Amino acid sequence: MGRITLSQVTKNFGTTNVIPPLDLEIDDGEFVVFVGPSGCGKSTLLRLIAGLEDVTSGNIAINGNDATNIPPAKRGLAMVFQSYALYPHMSVRKNIAFPLKMAGLSQNEIDQKVNAAAEVLNLADYIDRRPGQLSGGQRQRVAIGRAIVREPDAFLFDEPLSNLDAALRVNMRLEISELHQQLKTTMIYVTHDQVEAMTMADKIVVLRAGNIEQVGSPIELYKNPTNLFVAGFIGSPK
Ligand code: ADP
Ligand code: MG
Predict the structure, then answer these.
(1) Where is the ABC transporter domain (predicted)?
(2) Atom in ligand 1 nearest the alpha carbon of residue 159
């Protein structure tokens, strides 16, 4: 289950308001993309959902339960960042196993889950290497693997491909979409890249200065943008 509801959520940093009151419903299993220009509040919104920032007012519910007092590690969400944050001294296998070790699973259970993630992500060829011996795309797969083994209710991606070159981004885009089809887990994916949004999303949330300008499927937004900002951003002919 990965249903996430934001009700009248706001966020201030000091006296600056970056998220005005915002409502959003994310259904279980949806692939939702937050898209908008740099500084519009995408990462802040994701961090609020993850619990890495506290809301200033309003409420976030995960699977119908108020998340206000639930710490990040207990929210059942796994975050994948653009910086991979892998442990350089550990093999791929150990990097992926690490959260499971912390959670106190038996070695048997750990091996099973790591092998399953390695298969989904095609990591077998480099499972015993260290991060320093991997390409950017391989590192990103390991970071996703570390999220998968936790079997989260939702994956939160913050511009996970922005450090990769153009060809690899296209590849990884397809891989993440395939992963979603396979796992059917809720995914929230932040990007400033319109093409990623249009090709990956079930539902696009277009943000501008913390405001939701429009929510809809790629086709809906393309055919019926509510304003010129959305039209310009999505690249529709209106
Ligand atoms: P995006 O991810 O869309 O580029 P962010 O969510 O990072 O945007 O930032 C939204 C706004 O909030 C920006 O104006 C940014 O400067 C501001 N901001 C983000 N984090 C902080 C923080 N910790 N302290 C103060 N201002 C912040
Ligand atoms: Mg950001």
Answers:
(1) 4-234
(2) 2
